[in-house]
Design goal:
It is globular, with a radius of gyration of 20 Å. It is 33% helix and 15% strand.
Amino acid sequence: MLPQPLFEPIIDQHDTWLAVNPVQGCNRDCGYCHLQDLNLTGVKPTVLASPKDTLDQLLAHRYYHPDLVVALYTCTDALATRTTAAHLTGMLDTLASSSVRNPVCLITKCHIPDGVLDAIQRARDAGLPVLVYLSYSGLGPDIERGINHEALRDNFPRLSAARIPVIHYWRPFLPQNSYPHILESVLDIASRYAECSVTVGTKVKPNALEQITGLWPQIAGPFLDPQGADSVWPRNAWEWMRPLPERYADYPVYQTNSCALAYTLGRHDRSGVHNTPTCLNANRCPAKQRTRCRQDASRQATLTREHIDHHLHRLGHTTLPYTLRADTRTIAFRDPLALRECHNLAQVLTATVRAPHHPEERYWSGHLSGAHPLVIDAR
């Protein structure tokens, strides 16, 4: 008997965006997938809500705000089956005909059919900003089981020809895809067609250490805390990324997904990254974008307790003690607060939010929670 799936909320908050998951479960079986411990890999996707019901739930949800980015189908790959692709097409048409004008992201490793390309273009023509994340890491079919990598690579020129913005999602970095010839082959494709790349090490959920150790045994070495890190990087990939070959000099490469989104959408940083060590030393960001962040940050309205208390009330918190540093837009809570609540506050208020770790937290720590990358030897 197969274990029962553990479905995530249909509307949820992640560290960079609102996640909208009316379909959950994936018939692919990538070895590192964050859905494994939920029994949602290697299974037939389950439709939990129609596009219309999903839209209604989104607009009514306490996390919804018109400025936030919306990511569709983060608990499946919407291009993996005909059923999920049809649901995606209906979802895009439903959003495009509604009042929603949030930027919308679609993340995939699968072939994008012409019908879905047409739906994306219809939505964009209607004024809904849709962009595509192509998750291409250079890993092989032994780890990304069920993925047609040739079809995945073909998405890059097809989307570029259709003038649909692409962000290259370069994740996860494991020893297996951290050799220089693999790194260069991936970036050669991405830099020709994508707006930018987002580089992400290996994320380790609190209860997924054994899963990731099967792919990378050294990640569980003594005195290491992979679950408390933003992500874990093989040292050879980390060091290769620092200078990058000269031919990629004009191509933006980010460690922070929020910055890649800001650059692609023509926005300023809303996540407190600007002028931090990550901004200055890790992100390869164009001068024009850095100027935008600097100028727009200086124009932000002062963050007040009234703003914070109003949004806390919307989230269902009436008595939650905190301190505010208005000069740095930093909110520090005295008691534990779920990461999804922290992330929503941070994104809506354009603030940095800190809170003690919640003992029942199921999500990995992230940059916006104050975590840092962990760099270790690959072998």
